[in-house]
Structures
1.
Amino acid sequence: MKLFGKTFDPELHEAVSSVTDEKLGEKEIKEEYQAGYKIGSKVIRHAMVAVAN
């Protein structure tokens, strides 16, 4: 699943870095480093992402 441009959700994502990008809004995902996984509604592994601004 592509996460670029989606809003950061701490229930689903783990922020491993923060970047400044004037093209993206507050708490938008800039890059996905590692995919996350869910089974039903349970999170098995959070997605590791870089968050803008």
2.
Amino acid sequence: MRSTARRSHGLAALALLCACSADEVVPARAGGAIEAMIRAAAGSVPELPVVGPHLNWSPFLCMMPPAARALHSTVEAEDGHGSKIYALRSNQGGPYMKLGTEEEVELPLFTVLIKEAFTPVLHAGEDAPSPHSTPGWELAASHGYIPFAERDGLTYRTGASRGLFVMLRLPEGTPDTMDGWAFGTVDPAGRVTGAGAMESCIRCHRAAKHGGLFGWQAE
């Protein structure tokens, strides 16, 4: 009951910010309105269901905007294992999982997709807990997922938060969006570091097969 109340509160706040109709959203000044919606979406993360059966790996280009620096410096490239581990959360997880299948799917307005990213830490112990084991069930209950991922035969666990990467579906034609999709980044401290038609996000998502979305990645 308490969890349901928290979820309703978080998503209700997002719905209010998104407004009730396309007529109310499209003419709005996109900058401040979209930033407010990104902030509301970030606040709903603990209540949003996790999409898919396991954590996934994020591509190198999916990164936060660089922080301001006192002196110029170059960003060092990350190696193959430097990618983030992420859990995908959404208020439309079921339809999202069907993208790319024979069933035709169109995600509704005000769909929220949030990539909750972490630094991968090599797991030095035994294999990750099985979803069917008691530790696995306990981890899933507390996190919403089992916080381990595998790559190249190695097991990694979630380390420090790398922030949130948010997509919101607004009416097509809403200013400062990609065909209605607004992007946002929220740093681990909860600060919105980007909102709207973020070029760093659009570079990849513009070529995605499912209307700006990649769909569930098997691994």
3.
Amino acid sequence: MSELVFLLGLALFGYYLWDSRGVDELATQTARQACQQRHLQFLDFSVEKQSTRLVLATGGQPQWRRDYCFEFHVGSDVSEPERYGARMTLIGKRPTQIEFDPHPVPDEHIQYVEGPGRCMRG
């Protein structure tokens, strides 16, 4: 019986790791899109998971709440960017909150392209 419990626990842990990888990729994509919409440069092309916990979502269903942080830069000079922080929360696979630290107003005529530290003035 204890072997069955161990195997079930191992399977659940494996599923959690597999699911987390997909959600981490979704969080990175969401952060990138949020920065583009605000004319900010998404730095390091990654997010950092701060915490994970089980919560009761709408309808009383248990869901994973994952909190992330990431950094962004205002402007086009990314040789030595001034870094600002942002936080994001996902419940399940749904972003529920994105919060940016106070920062200067960006130049809305900058068009960002994919790739680390590259942008074009429009």
4.
Amino acid sequence: MKFFLDTADLVQIEEAASWGAVAGVTTNPSLYARIGGKLADFPAHIARICALIDGPVSAEAMGLTRDALIREGRELAGIAPNVVVKIPTMVEGLAATRALANEGIRVNMTLCFTVPQAILAARSGARYVSPFVGRFDDSSEDGIEHLANIVRSLENYDFADTGVNGERIEVIAASIRSAQHVTQAALIGADIATVPFSVLKKCVEHPLTTNGLAAFQEDWKKVDNA
């Protein structure tokens, strides 16, 4: 399973990239607003992210009609070769995804919650589909079960002929809230987990590792250096 970083924070992205474990970045309007981003600066900000990450960078189109989504998608894709256009899972989004895929532009269909939505995204030519795990949990449903159903359903079919350059659609486990979510997504077989920086750090940490390192340090002080 690959890790994407779910943020618009350049400092976090640069730090995570230095670990060598991050294969891409996903952003959304909420994440950009959280860092105090300005609308006029958005294309330049995405370009800076693309320069930090040697992998796909998802940037969201905000139109509500297919024409607006297609226009924005082309503009976003023109920022850098590794931009992936995020489009919401809806009728107008499916139409825009098909048009953009026909032009060789990769799409990440976001706000996906059901198996039929995921299959329709794949049929429309999406390169990625992003089921939201944590938002199901917020409404007292099992987000991991929904993710598992989507992964299993897409594995039943070969959608390579519908996508860009014959690439297989990949499932991005999104709205990840914990290292346990990451573990479950990996066991299910999700292709990618996109995680906040705080969760990525928790994936590295474990009390037994911390305690073991402290014990090694203490024992090393006892070694005779004569």
